[in-house]
Design brief:
The complex is a heterodimer of chains A (158) and B (103). Chain A is α+β, with helices and mostly antiparallel strands and 158 residues long. In chain A, 22% of the residues lie in helices and 37% in strands. Chain B has no helices and seven strands. Chain B is elongated. The two termini of chain B are 27 Å apart. The chains are: A alpha+beta (158), B mainly beta (103).
Chain lengths: 158, 103
């Protein structure tokens, strides 16, 4: 198994960002350490909001209007769908972007330390018309909002 | 050596706006090549952004992030002339670090 090179550069990477403490403080370390350092495998294999919540340490998420999802109503190219999430939930620690008709729901997660706005944007692949969910982990629990994005040309496969 | 990122960091009244364009295939592992073989998953799994030795953002990504990933966010406490350092690590252990000066 050709593991050593990957483990070495993972160790270097972790040292670079200040050690496991930084990753754990960002909220991601604990579950993932047993598998791949700093990457929540269970979350990225979750196939429902409930499974994702369980993987990131929650049980339920309250719907809220304090989370804004910026996304096109219709995405012409499912391979590149711009998604922005702004959370006004006080004490937001992390933002998770989920797509409910993708094979694995979780596309991306972001940890925002104190001093960083809970305002992130990226581009994701959507296989078909789906609801995009923004799950937020805050000091006092989990919150969620969703927006339907229609996809004319799916972007998951070749 | 992976291609460099393009980073733009701009000081605004309410914070430093950071935009990054990374160069990466972000293969899902579900695509087949011309010979019908599955192209293995190859995607950025971790991103870290630092300013003045402090982490201002970390991200964990899966292969559903688009090819040549785009990232935008805003943090407070930076000023023009400071450096922002962006690092990514992918599932094969490849990594790339680039810096930009806040303008």
């Amino acid at each position: 198994m050709k593991q050593p090179a990957m483990n070495d550069s993972r160790r270097d990477f972790v040292k670079l960002v200040g050690g496991m403490g930084a990753l754990a403080a960002a909220g991601f370390g604990d579950l993932a350490l047993a598998q791949q350092p700093g990457w929540n495998k269970a979350a990225f294999e979750a196939k429902s909001l409930a499974e994702t919540l369980k993987a990131v340490g929650g049980t339920t998420a309250a719907e809220t209007k304090d989370i804004t999802i910026t996304a096109p109503d219709i995405a012409e190219n499912g391979a590149v769908v711009p998604i922005g999430v702004t959370s006004k939930v006080p004490g937001t620690q992390a933002v998770y972007i989920l797509v409910d008709k993708n094979p694995n729901w979780l596309a991306a997660s972001f940890a925002v330390p104190q001093g960083t706005e809970a305002n992130v944007a990226t581009r994701i692949k959507m296989g078909q018309t789906s609801n995009v969910l923004a799950l937020v982990k805050a000091n006092n629990g989990f919150f969620v909002a969703s927006k339907e994005v229609k996809v004319t040309l799916g972007g998951c496969g070749g | 050596m992976p291609d460099p990122m393009r980073i733009r960091a701009t000081a605004q009244p309410d914070g430093v706006d950071v935009r990054v364009l990374m160069s990466h295939e972000m293969e899902t592992g579900q695509r087949r090549d011309g010979q019908g073989r599955l192209v293995p998953a190859h995607y950025i799994s971790n991103v870290t952004v630092q300013h003045a030795g402090r982490t201002v953002l970390t991200a964990e990504w899966g292969p559903a992030v688009s090819k040549n990933p785009y990232l935008q966010f805003k943090f407070q406490g930076g000023k023009k002339g400071d450096e922002v350092v962006v690092t990514w690590l992918d599932n094969k252990g490849e990594t790339r670090t680039d810096k930009a000066t806040i303008n």
